[in-house]
Amino acid sequence: MSSADPIAADPMATDSTASLHGWGRTAPSTARVVVPRSADDVAAAIAAAGPRGIIARGLGRSYGDPSQNAGGTVLDMTGLGVVHSIDADSGRVVVDAGVSLDTLMRRALPFGLWLPVLAGTRQVTVGGAIGADIHGKAHHLVGSFGNHVESIRLVVGDGSVRELTPDGEDSELFWATVGGMGLTGVIVAATLRLHHVETAYFTVDTEQIDNLDDLMARQMIDDESYAESVSWFDAVTTGAHFGRGLLMRGNHATAAELPPKLRRDPLKFDAPQLLTVPDVFPPGLLNRFTAKLFSELWYRKSPTRSGAIQNITQFLHPLDILGEWNRGYGPRGFLQYQFVVPIERDDVIRTVLERMSAAGKVSALNVLKRFGAANRAPLSFPKPGWTMCVDIPVGPGLGALCDELDALVLDAGGRHYLAKESRTSPEAIRRGYPRLDEWRKVRDAADPGGIFTSDMSRRLELTHS
């Protein structure tokens, strides 16, 4: 049983000039934007790129500047948006790189297929998911996105198309592309392996835990018995309830576990977007008072409960209910700070929160989870340990605080996520990614002319020397 997309793409590439920024809405830059409709269009854009080079961009959900290219060319890959085939028996899907995970889920779920790795939003393209090697809430069991990619079609620096597989002749280039942030070439299509499910719902266990130590200890128990696991923590409340949080863990629901009303359409993709946030909010809207109010409401809304049936938005993607929610941070934007440290260095989590509190920095959207084993990609972010993520509004003193936090993370053997960071140093990336030189060697062979470049690659000295 299979499906093919009947909609043909517009055959003509288009281009314009635009100011672009990441999801954090900081450091915009202007580039020529080309919307390719085919691999040939991509090759033509590469050939026409000037000295500032070219980089691919999906839906712009990286928080910093990896899909910006000041004075150069940016490829808007949403023009390559066809789902070519879905095989329900094998779970294989063949898609263009510009297909969003939201679109793919809507197409695949009627066949009983589920993407094993989903980020905190479905508004990410397949190419972006590979380039950032997204991880989701199931990493402790299934790893990151690259683990589920069977092949990649990559346009390299000379305009040719390379067919890459994880264990084939070009496996080094495959794994350099996974997590490589678009710097090895332009992904134009991929074959993915999806998982089979009976329903589009989860059975969810929620635990309300009143301090950080207990939250982390509880997350170490029975985690492997859940397909998805994550905790939210309060980064504002101090004292005895410092770091209190919600531990939310779930498994895919079977049809028999659904209430009768949902059993009538068990694979329904129930994921509405209620509204789009207007771009009217002033800076400073998120402060200690509003963050404390939000944290209190968020903590109280989810009491301890077992076996609740939740849809994909309720459990995995609550923020997808609000379009452009990043506008709520105001015109200065915000910084998402995400890192991973080894499991035995859980003390770093507490210290980071204490330093944030001492500096008067607040965050309401906070995530803490455990990672499982790393994959073979030199620049893939996840490795065994704790990962923590906070969203901090841009304001005075933030850079100095982050420099201080960087030192804590790196001294503990940790590193930062390239898809989230927007201000760290080249030295921090060199220390955090010990296989960086290995990746450079593969990248240089695929792109000897250094055509693939971005604001991030220049900032972090990842461009050719």
Walk me through what this model shows:
The protein is α+β, with helices and mostly antiparallel strands and 465 residues long. It folds into two domains: 7-197 and 440-459, Uridine Diphospho-n-acetylenolpyruvylglucosamine Reductase, domain 3; 202-426, Alpha-Beta Plaits (2-Layer Sandwich). The protein has 14 helices and 22 strands. The strands form six sheets. It has a six-stranded antiparallel sheet. Strands 2-3-5-4 form a four-stranded mixed sheet, with helices on one face. Helix 5 packs across helix 13 (436-446) and helix 10 runs antiparallel to helix 11 (398-411). It starts with a strand and ends in a 6-residue tail after the last helix. Residues 1-10 have low confidence and may be disordered.
Biggest sheet: strand arrangement: 1-6-7-11-9-10
SS-based structural class? Answer: alpha+beta
Summed over residues and divided by their number, the pLDDT gives a mean of: 94
Distance between the termini: 50 Å
Stated plainly, the CATH topology of the largest domain is called Alpha-Beta Plaits
Low-pLDDT segments, ≥5 res: 1-10
Number of helices: 14
- The domain tally reads 2
- Content of β-strand: 15-25%
- What is the count of β-strands? 22
Radius of gyration: 21 Å
Helix-residue proportion = 10-25%
Shape category: globular
CATH architecture of the largest domain: 2-Layer Sandwich
**Largest beta-sheet characterization:** 6 strands, antiparallel
CATH class of the largest domain: Alpha Beta
